[in-house]
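Dear colleague,

Thank you for sharing your sequence with our group. We've completed the structure prediction you requested, and as agreed, I am returning the results in plain text so they can be pasted directly into your records. Please verify that the sequence below matches your submission; if there's any discrepancy, let me know and we will rerun it promptly.
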Amino acid sequence: MKTILLIGSRNKADFALYLSHVISNLDKKILIVDSTVDQIYRHGYTHLGKEEHLFDFQNIDILCGAKNWLQVEEILRTNYETTTNYDVVLVDMDSIEAVTREWPTFDNRFYIGDEERLNQVRDVELLHRLFDETENREMTRVQFEGRYKLDNSYFDNLMNNRTKWVSLSYSIEQDDFEAALRTQMQHELAIPFKKLSKQYREVLTDLVSGLFEIHIHDIQNAVKPSFFRFPSKRKKEHPKLADSNI
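Please find the predicted structure tokens below.
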């Protein structure tokens, strides 16, 4: 099982789902853990009731309501799942409160940033706290850029150059369709991957290629035949009940 952290104040749910879509098309089972303050996934990308916590979003499991790794395991257990059943567990965090809770040592850590000064100021404190808690300064940067084209060194200076970027930064140019696609995904509960810009899709395949050491062409071929499928609430019978219906 590979564990991945996505961190930053920016709303990263659509990015997480696009990334997970690519990974799931490699026949890998993936779980997204919503550890955001506003429960962005629960309210924006699922139809979960108050007492429900696990949702199937186009072959991607979204887990809501867990504040730490122990609660993740408890919720999965009540749904007859376990973390070991997943090839990838991705955790989305956007607060110091989430950072200070009990989590495993992540195999990969991605900072998802943009040019919004409010987000950058919050992220300085957020990343410093992450580094203090984990004694690890290594991160990979994914930067969403607008027309302003702010140099990456600006954020590095805000961080007092404390971050140790483990690879070249990935840049995604924001376009007029980004917000529209996000809204479409929230209401139709389907991932409009083919409508993303060529650059966005290339960054996603590049990231997945590095994560799993798979050739980019193999990843591109894997996502080509994908079709939109509407998700449903996860419903699982207790094994004994299922046996009794045979």
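Summary note from our side: The two ends are 33 Å apart (CA to CA).

Kind regards,
the structure core
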